[in-house]
Structures are given as structure tokens and as C-alpha cells.
Specification:
The protein is an alpha+beta fold. The chain is built from 7 helices and 6 strands. It has helices at residues 13-30, 32-37, 56-70, 149-167, 178-197, 222-235, 249-265; strands spanning 77-82, 91-94, 101-106, 137-142, 207-208, 215-216.
């Protein structure tokens, strides 16, 4: 009677609208088939069958698998390990536990976060790839993160999302939502479970969404991650996806509430074809 049990969006209005708009944007750049058909990557031997011992060879093997899932040619990026916790760059993913840069991305032109040629916001042919030659982007991973392979996968996916967006000229590094879009790109390509289980922290004072006084996180917040994952299940008509059991308790609860909201209200500007 009082609406106490009515489903509610997990996000504030600005975060909700941004997530829907950017999911639509990603579908235009990478294809809706990615959202509909690409498996949700899980921390299981099915997706990561190689022995893990934190050696350089194991890190490289993991990195190449994540490259494959992100559809990034391994030859286009060089992987390096650093152990200076003060090392950071424009395209840095924070360690979710310790607060320093767990990984960084540097463009092939050796500038931090430089957007490559292309019109920001304009979809490119989905099979188009730059000709790399001897020029490669560089992804650096902090040495101390190697003892947490699940977190490491999320960091790799985030940095490779920079490659898909900036390295391939799809986005502008100076955009206010650069890191948010990078996280969402990794979720779109199947790495939402890894990011939701270990959400990244903002580097400083929270900004606000343009034109509002609502706080805007630097990276996807737990509610935004839950809402994005709920769209994946909603689009696939999966009311109880098997992959959700791999979410930790808090993000799983947020995901269930977000999916219930979409199922009951269909209140999203980014709807499955069957509901349009």
C-alpha cells in the first residue's frame, strides 16, 4: 500500500541516465552482439586454465587471455611491471585496497592518455583496427598486485579498455567521464564480475555530474556496476543468471535489486529489442 516494496533504481538519476546512455554508445561502437552473446568472464578454470604462480610468464599468459577476451591484439600492447607505488599516469587504475595506481596505460605516441585520431563519439567500423607496426601502447602493472590474481584481471581489463577507447580513437581522454567509460567498457566486454567484486576508488574529492549537484564518482560505483550488470542479464532475458553466484554478497544483492527494477518497470532508455 505504501510502496515500501516497490523496486527502485540503485543509482541516482544522473548516474542512471549516464549508464543507460553510455551502454547505448558502447553498443554503437562495439556492436550489440557483444552485450547479447559474449560470455561473462568468471574467475574459474574455464576462463583461466593456466597455472598461477605470479611469475612473469604467468602474468604474461593471463594478460594474453584478457587481451583475447577484450579483443585486443597482444602485439598492440607491451606489458611491463613496476614496483614504485608512487608511479601513476593519466590513465591509472587505483588499487581497490591500497589506494595507489595498480595499473597504467600509455599511448603508442608515448603521451599519457592522448586520444588518437578519430572523431570522439562517432562509431567506427567494428572490425577496424589500427596498423600498429613497431608502435605499441604500454600497460604497466604494479608489482604488489600480483598476489591477488582476481584483482589483477580487473586491472588488466580496465587498462585494455583504455586501449579500445583511446588507443583505437573512439574516445577523448579529456572527457569528464573518461575513467567511468573505461570501467563500463570492461563491463561491456564481460569483466563486470571482476570489477564489481573489487570496485576502484576515486583518487580525491568527488566531482558532480554536469548541470547537477549530485556527486559523481571517478570510477564506476557499486550501484552503477550493479545497474550495468543488470542490463546484461535483462537484455539476455536471464532472470537468474548462473554467473551472478560469482559476485560477492554486497554486489550480488545490489545486482538482484537492479535486475528486479528493470524486470518490473522496464524503466531504462536502453531497452532490449523485445521491449522497444
Amino acid at each position: 500500500m505504501f510502496g515500501w516494496f516497490a523496486p527502485r533504481s540503485p543509482c541516482d538519476p544522473s548516474a542512471k541516465k549516464w549508464t543507460e546512455d553510455r551502454l547505448r554508445w558502447l553498443s554503437g561502437h562495439f556492436g550489440l552482439h557483444v552485450l547479447l552473446e559474449k560470455p561473462v568472464i568468471l574467475p574459474t578454470s574455464e576462463f583461466f586454465p593456466d597455472k598461477w604462480d605470479a611469475t612473469p610468464a604467468a602474468v604474461q599468459k593471463m594478460f594474453e587471455r584478457v587481451c583475447g577476451y577484450m579483443n585486443v591484439p597482444p602485439r598492440s600492447v607491451e606489458l611491463k611491471i613496476f614496483n614504485d607505488t608512487s608511479n601513476s599516469g593519466s590513465m591509472a587504475a587505483l588499487d581497490p585496497l591500497r589506494g595507489f595506481a595498480a595499473g597504467t596505460w600509455q599511448g603508442a605516441d608515448h603521451s599519457w592518455g592522448a586520444s588518437q585520431t578519430g572523431t570522439p563519439g562517432a562509431p567506427r567500423a567494428q572490425d577496424a583496427r589500427p596498423s600498429y607496426g613497431s608502435r605499441r601502447s604500454v600497460i604497466r602493472l604494479e608489482q604488489s598486485t600480483l598476489d591477488r590474481p582476481s584483482d589483477l584481471v580487473g586491472t588488466m581489463a580496465h587498462e585494455l579498455a583504455h586501449q579500445r577507447l583511446l588507443g583505437e580513437g573512439r574516445a577523448n581522454s579529456q572527457a569528464f567521464d573518461n575513467e567511468l567509460l573505461t570501467d563500463l567498457t570492461a563491463v561491456y566486454h564481460g569483466f563486470g564480475v571482476f570489477l564489481a567484486n573489487n570496485p576502484r576508488k576515486s583518487t580525491g574529492r568527488l566531482d558532480v555530474w554536469p548541470g547537477t549537484q549530485l556527486k559523481r564518482p571517478e570510477y564506476l560505483s557499486e550501484p552503477m556496476l550493479a545497474y550495468a550488470l543488470a542490463h546484461i542479464a535483462w537484455f539476455r532475458d536471464e532472470p537468474k543468471p548462473a554467473w551472478a553466484k560469482h559476485l560477492r554478497w554486497a554486489p550480488r544483492a545490489a545486482f538482484k535489486e537492479a535486475l528486479r527494477y528493470l524486470d518490473k518497470t522496464a524503466d531504462s532508455t536502453f531497452k532490449p529489442v523485445r521491449l522497444r
